[in-house]
């Protein structure tokens, strides 16, 4: 089985991705979404966690084999960066959403040497705003950001455009289209719901 579908099955099985086309969730932005995603649940499901971390390690090996350090996003990406770094034998750290207001006032935790080749580890990408703040912080400290690995991406146009504008690539274990198709195949949703879900992905502000 290909990795993308395996991870889709895993996320659906443990409720890390939950599809509810008939009764949408409301995001903090106010957008009504038929999808709820909480990849933190992978950490409490050992078999799924193993698939995810081995998968992230495989992405790093395939696309960023020059990586010298992994940097997790705070907070969801920290554990994944740590476990993936352990598998690969690479150092890891993480980037705070803002600098600490005490101590050394670090924003980047862990040793980072200017010029080091870094891969950012993220759990979820929608509009890509938060992960690109991490990329910017690393670049400001002199890191060479090779790219991003993530568990799941919506593939929203806004996110893709932002990543392209920042000249940074992302490779995800699975994506929205695969999740929707797998959910229909396995009876989580009706087959006719797939088109509605893809329509949401393409235009999140359209509440229909």
Describe the structure.
- This protein has helices at residues 3-13, 46-63, 78-88, 129-140, 157-165, 176-185, 193-202; strands at 17-19, 25-26, 32-33, 35-37, 69-73, 92-95, 108-109, 117-125, 144-153, 170-175.
- By secondary structure, it is of the alpha/beta class.
- The radius of gyration is 17 Å and the shape is globular.
- The model is unreliable at 100-104 (pLDDT under 50).
Task: Please write out the topology.
Elements: H1 3-13, E1 17-19, E2 25-26, E3 32-33, E4 35-37, H2 46-63, E5 69-73, H3 78-88, E6 92-95, E7 108-109, E8 117-125, H4 129-140, E9 144-153, H5 157-165, E10 170-175, H6 176-185, H7 193-202
Parallel strand pairs: 5-6, 5-8, 8-9, 9-10
Antiparallel strand pairs: 1-4, 2-3, 6-7
**Total number of helices:** 7
Quickly give the structural class: alpha/beta
Distance between the termini: 34 Å
Described by strand count, sense and barrel closure, the largest sheet is:
6 strands, mixed
Number of strands: 10
**Helical amount among residues, as a percent range?**
25-40%
% residues in beta strands: 15-25%
Strand order of the largest sheet: 7-6-5-8-9-10
- Overall mean pLDDT stands at 92
Tell me, what's the shape? globular
Regions with little confidence, pLDDT below 50 for 5+ residues: 100-104
User: Radius of gyration from the CA trace?
Assistant: 17 Å
């Amino acid at each position: 089985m290909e990795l993308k579908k395996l991870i889709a099955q895993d996320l659906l099985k443990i409720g890390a991705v939950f599809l509810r086309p008939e009764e949408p969730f409301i995001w903090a932005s106010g957008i009504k979404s038929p999808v709820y995603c909480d990849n933190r649940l992978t950490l409490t499901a050992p078999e799924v966690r193993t698939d995810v971390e081995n998968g992230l390690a495989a992405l790093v090996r395939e696309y960023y084999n020059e990586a010298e350090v992994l940097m997790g996003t705070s907070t969801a990406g920290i554990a994944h960066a740590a476990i993936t770094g352990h598998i690969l034998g690479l150092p890891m750290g993480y980037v705070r959403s803002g600098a600490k207001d005490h101590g050394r006032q670090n924003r980047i935790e862990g040793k980072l040497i200017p010029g080091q080749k870094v891969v950012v580890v993220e759990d979820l990408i929608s509009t890509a705003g938060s992960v690109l703040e991490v990329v910017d912080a690393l670049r400001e400290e002199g890191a060479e950001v090779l790219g991003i690995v993530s568990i799941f991406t919506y593939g929203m146009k806004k996110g893709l455009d932002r990543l392209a504008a920042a000249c940074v690539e992302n490779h995800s274990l699975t994506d929205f289209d695969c999740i929707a198709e797998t959910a229909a195949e396995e009876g989580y949703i009706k087959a006719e719901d797939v088109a509605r879900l893809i329509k949401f992905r393409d235009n999140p502000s359209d509440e229909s």
